[in-house]
Amino acid sequence: MRIDLHAHSTASDGTDTPAELVRNAAAAGLDVVALTDHDTVGGYGEALAALPAGLTLVTGAELSCRLDGIGVHMLAYLFDPEERELARERELVRDDRTPRARTMVDKLRALGVDVTWEQVARIAGEGSVGRPHVATALVELGVVPTVSDAFTPDWLADGGRAYAEKHELDPFDAIRLVKAAGGVTVFAHPAAVKRGRCVPESAIAELAAAGLDGIEVDHMDHDAGTRARLRGLAADLGLLTTGSSDYHGSRKTCRLGEYTTDPEIYGEITRRATGAFPVPGAGGRER
Predict the structure, then answer these.
(1) Pick from 227, 213, 207: which is nearest to 266 by CA?
(2) Which residues contact 267 (CB under 8 A, 6 or more apart)?
(3) Entry pTM
(4) Which of 9, 169, 211, 261 could form a disulfide with 14 if both were Cys (CB 3.0 to 4.6 A apart)?
(5) pLDDT per residue as tens, the chain (287 positions)
(6) Which residues, listed in sequence order, are joined to residue 73 by a DSSP beta bridge?
(7) Contact 287, 19 (CB under 8 A)
């Protein structure tokens, strides 16, 4: 089995619609794909309706968190999307995304960049606007060559010149809320140092003690040495280890299935979940 547990659609900051994402996942030879848009479950319906035969969909989300001033992305799998407290927190984060993006546009203009809110809104479309959309605007303007190059201290990285804060969950609260909604939590790309500061291993140990289920190890932002270190840490803490592409369509260079999760780990994730269950495709309709 080929299992990719981290992918984004136009419901947040990917470039594939949810229907295109599941069709592309099947074309890439995946058996299982997780839809993990940022702080939203808005893509579920379209993805499920278009789900091809032979592909299983894991519903999820990537929750925006912050710990001691450091951004933390928490992957949540197979939770009940209707659970009220978690739904309310997701809504608070989403509601803060537009004012935050407008503030980043204002900061960029103050730095002499001829970006406009209209440009960023056009790029975001109906998705939940975020930094990758602002980064794409910088690429369009020729300020940086790629989206990744916008996530530096000069521009949009945490604490960067054009960075703006938004409402974010405490990761300990995120673990509690996801578990209360019957879901499973995995710390996304915990050592992606090129994105900015990362939490120390002691914080990961504290999150594990609070019920964190796993950490994402095999990821494009982790080199071989980092992956080995994280595997050792996970073994010490009794955490599951996953591998994922963090696919964003054409917005990033990673490919669906570039990194995958061991089937036994996937099986354990599904065993722990009680809020929702993986959905096997029976041949979705074209959209």
Answers:
(1) 213
(2) none
(3) 0.88
(4) 9
(5) 999 999 999 999 999 999 999 999 999 999 999 999 999 999 999 999 999 999 999 999 999 999 998 999 999 999 999 999 999 999 998 889 899 999 999 999 999 999 999 999 999 988 888 899 999 999 999 999 999 899 999 999 888 999 998 889 999 999 999 999 999 999 999 999 888 789 999 999 999 999 999 999 999 999 999 999 999 999 999 999 999 999 999 888 899 999 999 999 999 999 999 999 999 997 655 44
(6) 64
(7) yes
